[in-house]
Amino acid sequence: MATVEGEASYEDLDLSEVDLAPDASAATEITLADGASSGGSGVSVDGDTVTISAAGTYVLSGTLSDGQVVVNVVDDDVALILDGVDITMSDAPGIQVDDASNVIVYTAAGTTNSVSDTGTYDETDDTVGGAAIYSSADLFLAGEGTLVVDGGRNDGITSKDSLVIASGTYEITATDDGIRGKDHLVILDGDIAVDATGDALKSDNEADNDESERFVGIVWIAGGSLDLRSGTDGIDAANQVTIAGGTLAIDAGDDGIHSEVYLRIGDAEIDIANSYEGLEAALIYLDGGDVSIVASDDGINATDGSSNQETATQTMGGPPGGTAGGERPERPGAVDSAAGASSAPQSESDSPALTDAVEVQAPVDIVEDNVGIYIDGGTYVIDAVGDGVDSNGNIQMSGGVVVIAGPETDREGPIDYNGEFALDGGVIAASGASGMAEAPDGGEQPYVWLTFNMSLAAGTVISVVDDGGELIASYTTEKTSASLVLSTPDIESGATYTVVSGGSVAGGEEVGPLTVGGTLTGGNELGSLTAS
């Protein structure tokens, strides 16, 4: 997966190479039991605290109802094979790594293992760790069994360094964050379910105090099946989120996926069923995948958090690119119709018609540097109460498919950008209110822009037909709408297209409410327009 300057590649994470399938045949056995735990060489027992102080592989079985397993091995590796353990600890982690180079936690095939903590987390005392499984060293999780973790005090699983999940089944609940790798959180494979009051997945180191050039604060997902439920963000990173593969289902109280700087999505399937903003970062790169987003604010939002506004008179709904004084330059071949739709449906006797631009009082956003959305591939279906796609910088689109069911009120727009929108390829259909609607203002691929004199009810079919009678595309509104921006590679600059309301469409390629191609039967002609 290609990267840009400042963005980390997988190799830049510089993860340790460890054996993720430890050999149990020569391992030391540890039997956990209240008041009667036992182990061999390298193991000491003090009450219900079992401490491992030598490198090697250990097989753990049994139950501790109020105890813990501690790893304290300087500059060496330890592998823990969980073979049917049930560990609960009050006021401290159930498994706690005080020191080691790398720790591997491996679940044996056919086993279910539980680790939990209870009580209250003392944030001033780092020695007890804020998670049911807490590691001061790099932590690797793998196996063929199941690990159930209940972070009753704070997080479910936390590593102060890197945390890598390579295989296995995980069921995580947490009072705060579900799974947290402060330097890196890497998921290569596995079946992972998280239900967290805070963030489901998190990496929050902004910088390495000892190595300023080191890449940290990164969530990297290459595979696996993830079901994430969170009170705040589904995925949150201080610097970078990269999703190169896997299947993700996200139900978030705040952002579905959030990064302070970089967010890149590749060959992944992502369903964000609930979120405040679906995807948010300063720089968003959409290379591939199949993504659906439901957002109570913006579907995709590029921002560095510093945006502010000035107020000026603009011609909203007309061709973009206006100045602060409200004058918008004429573009050759611009769409003949523009804004002016009312926000409430008219009576049933009224018919929709294309309209011209009007001047309205509107905010002018300041362009943020190093902020943008770059769409090269993939399919993105967005249902947003706020802006469908919003960039406080630029938007560049050269491929992929973006389908937007945008806002119903004129305070937001299906597409919103502060800089420029260069459209050079792909398919985009953006529907919603018309008062703040925008269309691309640059690039080589033409588009048509439809706005109406009345709001169209949900379920209205709007089709664009070329002068030869061939259907270019059809969009079925999913909510009240008064505008539609449509671009496909089949639209030609300067060509005239007919807009049809109603009728039925057969065949074609369906992507959410959009159908590209196919055959249109019936409907009422609303008028014609010229593609930009």
What does this structure look like?
The protein is an all-beta fold and 532 residues long. The protein has 2 domains: 23-291; 309-321 and 332-530, no CATH class. The strands form 5 sheets. It has a 27-stranded mixed sheet that branches. The protein is elongated. The protein starts with 27 loop residues before the first strand and ends with a strand. The model is unreliable at 310-349 and 357-362 (pLDDT under 50).
Short key terms for the protein model shown above:
2 domains; elongated; 27-stranded mixed beta sheet
Overall shape: it is: elongated
Helix count equals: 0
Estimate the strand proportion: over 45%
Overall tally of structural domains: 2
Mean pLDDT: 90
Distance from N terminus to C terminus (CA atoms, Å) equals 34 Å
Largest sheet: 27 strands, mixed
Fraction of helical residues: under 10%
Supply the helix-strand structural class: mainly beta
Q: How large is the radius of gyration?
A: 27 Å
Entry summary:
By secondary structure, this protein is mainly β. The chain is built from no helices and 51 strands. The radius of gyration is 27 Å and the shape is elongated.
